[in-house]
Structure formats: structure tokens, C-alpha cells
Design a protein that fits this description.
single chain; alpha/beta; Rossmann fold; 11 helices; 40% helix; binds S-adenosylmethionine; transferase; Methyltransferase domain-containing protein
Length: 270
């Protein structure tokens, strides 16, 4: 078992999670009802909606580190039925769960693949978009991952990143966080380092947006919701385990202390 499997694969008990979803939403859950468990990034479904507005219809999309597939289901829910959407994730139990959740929701045509984002099993020019939402943060060899992305993207394609970066006060970083129970699972870098890596691999930077302030507001609202007496049916703890409340509060502190930043970066290859 790799350290990533240990972190993400440990609590993903497929039957328990499916039973919980079916009991709470017997008619089939909507993307909004699933969001607490399948939008495992800072900013939740609103951030995903914003990200998806960058993608044209009828595209070939590869998502690296797709987790439980919330972004793909939202994409199809937003009427982009004709797209080819490949969910790729290194953690097999999450992929199994993604596939099982698909069977509970409106049918769509995403494919789900267990593979490493540092070695993509696709040919040159296979995709119009590569999307990474809080997954580059787990990847140690970012140079290799970006080389692979550049190879599989079409020359007019786009890489869209929604990622966590080191903030100016990274020394105050607290663990555990949702992507890393301990520091050696986390591979955050600074914005400057990310932009240099992208340029070294031949990418041109189209835009960079800082989403930190809205991420902090979102995280603060999640803490308020979690403290209410009536608990929601689905919570991230179902997937990430009982430490999730500490992870969530650490994310809030890390954002407030400027230990981490949230950015969206759009880049084109070659
Ligand atoms: C924080 S989760 C985010 C999941 C999903 N993008 C979301 O926002 O809900 C990070 C995901 O990246 C995946 N991941 C980590 N390292 C990876 C790698 N080398 N290749 C592919 N996926 C990876 C993990 O298994 C996990 O599902």
C-alpha cells in the first residue's frame, strides 16, 4: 500500500457509504446532495461550478485525481452530455466508489481509470482539457506530471488547475488536512515554483486567480454547518474518517494564517 492509498483508501467503505446515500436519498442523490462527500476540495461545489465554466461543450476532458467524481457528475448535470470525460485516480477504492455512485445518479458516459498522474496511459493529443482539482498537491514529481499532461493535451488544449499552494506563512502549517494526515503526504509548492515548472515544460500561462478569500469564507460556513445540532446525512468524515473535523478546522486556520493559498491557473501547452 502506498502512503496515498493509506490516506484516501482507508475509510472508503463502499457498502456503508452507498447505504448511507441510498437511505438519505432513495430517489437518487443530486450533485448538490452528494457534494459533502464527492467535492473533496476547498470551496466545494461552487468552486467546481466556477471551474467548469472554463470548459467548452463537446470536449475531451481528462481529470487527474478525480476522487469520487463530483466534478464529472456536475459537468454532465450541467447538460454537457456529449463530452468525453475520463476520471483518472491513483486510489482504486475511490474509483470503485465513484463508479458505484454513478449507478445511483442520472446515467452519463464518464470512464473511470486507476492510474498514476505521473505516467498517463494515453497517446499524444488525446484531450482538449486536463483538469486537476486539489490533486497536484499530492503529486511528488510535478515535472513528470506536467510533461505527461503536455504530451496528452492537444496543441490548442488547456490545463486547468484548482490547487492549494504554500502561502507566505507556510511555517505555521498545521496537519492533518484533508489531503494529508501527515506532512509527507503533502506536496505543496509556492506559486513561483509552480509557474516556473509550467514554463519549463513549455506551457504559456493564460490566467492566475487567487481564490483564497472565498475559500476561507466557504470553510468558515462549513464549520458553522458542522456545529449545528441537526447533522447532515452525508459528511466528508464518511470518506476521510473521524479526523475530518480536525482536518477541516486546520484548513480554516491554515487559510486564515496564510500558511496556504488557493489558486486557479489556466495554461496552454507549447
Ligand atoms: C484532495 S483529493 C481531491 C479529489 C477530487 N479532485 C475532489 O476535488 O473531490 C486528491 C485526489 O488525488 C488523487 N491522487 C493523488 N496522487 C495521485 C496521482 N499520483 N495520480 C492520480 N491521482 C492522484 C487521490 O487519490 C485523491 O483522490
Amino acid at each position: 500500500m502506498t502512503s496515498i492509498d493509506e490516506h484516501y483508501g482507508h475509510f472508503s467503505h463502499l457498502d456503508t457509504i452507498l447505504d448511507t446515500i441510498q437511505q438519505a436519498y432513495p430517489e437518487g442523490p443530486s450533485p448538490f446532495q452528494l457534494a459533502p462527500i464527492d467535492q473533496l476540495h476547498i470551496g466545494g461545489i461552487k468552486a467546481s461550478d466556477k471551474l467548469l465554466k472554463r470548459i467548452d461543450k463537446a470536449s475531451r476532458i481528462l481529470e487527474i485525481g478525480s476522487g469520487l467524481g463530483g466534478l464529472s457528475r456536475l459537468y454532465y448535470h450541467n447538460q454537457h452530455k456529449e463530452a468525453l470525460y475520463v476520471c483518472l485516480d491513483i486510489t482504486h477504492p475511490l474509483n470503485r466508489l465513484n463508479s458505484a455512485i454513478n449507478h445511483l445518479t442520472a446515467p452519463h458516459s464518464s470512464s473511470i481509470l486507476t492510474a498514476d498522474g505521473q505516467s498517463l496511459p494515453f497517446d499524444y493529443d488525446s484531450f482538449d482539457y486536463v483538469v486537476m482539482q486539489h490533486s497536484l498537491l499530492n503529486i511528488p514529481d510535478k515535472k513528470k506530471a506536467l510533461q505527461e499532461i503536455s504530451r496528452v493535451l492537444s496543441p490548442n488544449g488547456q490545463l486547468i488547475l484548482h490547487e492549494v499552494l504554500k502561502g507566505d506563512d507556510y511555517a505555521s502549517m498545521r496537519f492533518p488536512v484533508p489531503w494529508a494526515s501527515q506532512p509527507d503526504h503533502s506536496h505543496l509548492i509556492e506559486e513561483e515554483a509552480l509557474l516556473s515548472l509550467l514554463k519549463e515544460q513549455g506551457f504559456t500561462i493564460g490566467s492566475i486567480e487567487d481564490w483564497t478569500q472565498e475559500a476561507l469564507l466557504w470553510r468558515t460556513r462549513q464549520t458553522e454547518k458542522a456545529n449545528k445540532v441537526q447533522k447532515p446525512a452525508l459528511t466528508p468524515a464518511l470518506v476521510l474518517g473521524p479526523d475530518f473535523s480536525v482536518m477541516g478546522s486546520n484548513v480554516q486556520k491554515n487559510l486564515a494564517d496564510n500558511a496556504i493559498r488557493i489558486v486557479e491557473v489556466i495554461a496552454t501547452p507549447r
